[in-house]
Amino acid sequence: MALLPDLGTEIVIPGNAPPFATSCSPLVHDYLIEEEDGINDHGVVVKCAEIQSAISEGATSFLFTEYQYVGIFMIAFAILIFLFLGSVEGFSTKSQQCTFNKEKLCKPALATAIFSTVSFLLGAFTSVVSGFLGMKIATYANARTTLEARKGVGKAFITAFRSGAVMGFLLAANGLLVLYIAINLFKLYYGDDWEGLFEAITGYGLGGSSMALFGRVGGGIYTKAADVGADLVGKVIADNVGDNVGDIAGMGSDLFGSYAESSCAALVVASISSFGMTHDFTAMCYPLLISSMGILLFLCVCVGLWAGLIIGFVTEYYTSNAYSPVQDVADSCRTGAATNVIFGLALGYKSVIIPIFAIAISIFVSFSFAAMYGIAVAALGMLSTIATGLAIDAYGPISDNAGGIAEMAGMSHRIRERTDALDAAGNTTAAIGKGFAIGSAALVSLALFGAFVSRASISTVDVLTPKVFIGLIVGAMLPYWFSAMTMKSVGSAALKMVEEVRRQFNTIPGLMEGHAKPDYATCVKISTDASIKEMIPPGALVMLTPLIVGIFFGVETLSGVLAGSLVSGVQIAISASNTGGAWDNAKKYIEAGASEHARTLGPKGSEPHKAAVIGDTIGDPLKDTSGPSLNILIKLMAVESLVFAPFFATHGGLLFKL
């Protein structure tokens, strides 16, 4: 069953200092770490294996179904890219005057159309593979983590974290390798035409983020529909499947998209800078060097941007139950769910302040050093730790799955307490990962916005111009529209799930007592069908908005839309992720009862605990569907606008030409 030969390596952990002490209550029972519990019970091993197999089959089935729909979109959009970009010069095969260096001749627009289409398909395929591999690794690790928890929380932690690290390093290296190979293959045709080369490479980022959008939204709807259903009527297998397709596969595709886009943004900006003019290939590939150094962990701290660290620390402070903000939210449950919701929302809004200042300062300093190229490299600095970021992100869902397996396998209460302790730490690490993704998305989007403005030949973006201002105010509205669609989708799918689980409890004899086996397949099918159906409208909103605005209103209005969506999207994303994370850990703080204060609020089933469960249920779609998807919205709209910029500049603004 081992995923890695050395997953079982022992580590020495003091009895009073678990490896995640900063993310859990400091008062942890010694038996969580030291005692061995039920390690000779072979029946438990068999049951865990059965549950793990069902989770793996459900996750694989969902992803294959999702990829069939997404594959159709991928081919259709690739054709659209070719037709739009090819028509810029009337599908001419003649060399054209370069956009930024009028004295040179560049490759024809038809070549850019062909290579952009190829790079789009390449990015989309790599994103899909990244998500799928991450899911397979996680489904192999979850049951093993459960079984290791019988020997103590330390060994379970090591298993979960190392499994996450396998995924992190695999995806980071995979994304970098494919991008580097693509650049060198394209260079055989483009030669010294850096402008055309990296304009075509931008399609790689577009492909990666397009797949990430559907992975995040579809997977997020799936996992949260099942999770909300589980909170309301008890644990269902679809909840565990959802952790893998949403939090693992979706998150893997998401961070791969950020990785690809930030690299492409830096490369595009570099191609129109002095590096591109002087044909300095070494300087041009500096963005890839940053990414590759980040794969060696001992260099992460040297390369990573300080803003990323601040966002991480602030996120931990506001979402970990070791600190006062989450404890205050838990305490508010004394007077019911309403005060819990009020305190949680206030926490989320407050948690936005310091990250926004950190992003703002990093933008100013980076721009002062190297203009838009500096901002793009700053985004890469934040994402250079992507391998470790993915590791701590994947650790959370693996631990959550381990707890679900322990509960469904009927393992002892003590083992469930150990997996709960891991899960509480995982909530915070996942929130930190989301904070990094959102912060880097802001910087990446700004760099892509700068490249779009240059490529579309916009001299200045003047907000006093009506064309720009209407775009600005509409763009600021888009994250709210998108969030409303995704949250309602989760609610609709959860409603169907709750009805099905209640039907099974009422119609299957012995199910309530644990003597009969539930109908897992129907629950999985409900989540699958609902998520596939519900992911299309939000995806269409994001993908079609730049095309509609660019074609009918022109590049100036589109620049306003991009700026508006960036400014409002970042705030909502941080707030939603931290609010949901705080509500989740407030519930776990009460359940664990590890401090005197927590014990006055518990135990499970008490009125404060019921209020905490309501907050946690409300927070599920915020932290795992709407919040994480918003950073894809702002990145994807920016990179899509950049890819289609030549077409918009040539043929856009039809309504204003009438």
From TrEMBL:
<protein>
    <recommendedName>
        <fullName>H(+)-exporting diphosphatase</fullName>
        <ecNumber>7.1.3.1</ecNumber>
    </recommendedName>
</protein>
<feature type="transmembrane region" description="Helical">
    <location>
        <begin position="108"/>
        <end position="135"/>
    </location>
</feature>
<dbReference type="InterPro" id="IPR004131">
    <property type="entry name" value="PPase-energised_H-pump"/>
</dbReference>
<dbReference type="GO" id="GO:0016020">
    <property type="term" value="C:membrane"/>
</dbReference>
<keyword id="KW-1278">Translocase</keyword>
<feature type="transmembrane region" description="Helical">
    <location>
        <begin position="69"/>
        <end position="88"/>
    </location>
</feature>
<feature type="transmembrane region" description="Helical">
    <location>
        <begin position="256"/>
        <end position="276"/>
    </location>
</feature>
<dbReference type="Pfam" id="PF03030">
    <property type="entry name" value="H_PPase"/>
</dbReference>
<feature type="transmembrane region" description="Helical">
    <location>
        <begin position="464"/>
        <end position="482"/>
    </location>
</feature>
<keyword id="KW-1133">Transmembrane helix</keyword>
<keyword id="KW-0813">Transport</keyword>
<keyword id="KW-0472">Membrane</keyword>
<feature type="transmembrane region" description="Helical">
    <location>
        <begin position="436"/>
        <end position="458"/>
    </location>
</feature>
<feature type="transmembrane region" description="Helical">
    <location>
        <begin position="156"/>
        <end position="183"/>
    </location>
</feature>
<dbReference type="GO" id="GO:0012505">
    <property type="term" value="C:endomembrane system"/>
</dbReference>
<dbReference type="GO" id="GO:0004427">
    <property type="term" value="F:inorganic diphosphate phosphatase activity"/>
</dbReference>
<keyword id="KW-0460">Magnesium</keyword>
<feature type="transmembrane region" description="Helical">
    <location>
        <begin position="352"/>
        <end position="380"/>
    </location>
</feature>
<dbReference type="GO" id="GO:0009678">
    <property type="term" value="F:diphosphate hydrolysis-driven proton transmembrane transporter activity"/>
</dbReference>
<keyword id="KW-0812">Transmembrane</keyword>
<feature type="transmembrane region" description="Helical">
    <location>
        <begin position="288"/>
        <end position="314"/>
    </location>
</feature>
<keyword id="KW-0406">Ion transport</keyword>
<feature type="transmembrane region" description="Helical">
    <location>
        <begin position="535"/>
        <end position="555"/>
    </location>
</feature>
